[in-house]
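Reviewer has doubts. Consider these C-alpha cells.
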Amino acid sequence: MDIYASDEEKGEEIKQWWRDNGRSVVIACVLGAIVIFGGRYWINYTNVQSEKASQAYQQVTMLLEAENNTAADAITQTLLSEFSATPYAVFTAFEMATLAVQNKDNESAQNYLEWVTLNAKLSAHKELASLRLAQLFLLDAKFEQSLALAEQAKSTAFSSLWAELKGDVYIAQDNVINARESYETALSSLAAGEPRQLILKVKLDDVAE
C-alpha cells in the first residue's frame, strides 16, 4: 500500500485486497477453528475412552479374583473390540491368556496373545506377547512355529529370553549342540548378578559334553 496515498485511495486498496483475498482468509479462519476444536474434541474423547477402559480393566481383575471367569471374559471381549487402542485392552488380554494357560485352554491363550501382537501400540508389549506365544507353541510341541517366532525377534531387551527359549526348543528336539549354544548366548546376554544366571547355568550343566 502506498503510504503517500489519500485515505480514499487507501480505502479502495483495502476493499480491493479484501475482494481478492477475503474468501481465502475466511476459509483459513474456519479451518483453523476446526483444527482447534477438533483437537480439543479428540483429546476429550481419548480421555473418556481411557477412563472407561480403565474401569473395565478393574472389573475384569476383580471378577478374576472372584473366579467369575465367564463375566470376566464378556467384559474382556468389550475391551478388545471397543477399547483396542488403550493399554488396558492389552493388559486384559495378557491376564486372560495367563488364565487360559492355567486352565489348559491353549487355543484361547493363543488367540489373546495373537491379538496383542496385532493391536498393541508399544513394541515391548508386542515382543512380550510373541515370546509368550512362542513358549505356548513349545508347550504344544509346535517346535518349528516357536523357533520361527524366535528368529523374527528384534528387541535386544528380550534377547536373553529368546535365546533361552531356543535352547529349550532344541532340547525338546534332542538337539544338544544347538541347545548348548543357545544357553551360552542367553547367559552372556545377562548382566552380572541376575537371578536367571543360576537357571541358565543349571541348563548348561545338563547339556555339558
Observations:
- DSSP finds nine helices and no strands in the chain.
- Residues 7-65 form the longest helix (59 residues).
- The radius of gyration is 29 Å.
- Residues 120 and 126 are 6 Å apart (CA to CA).
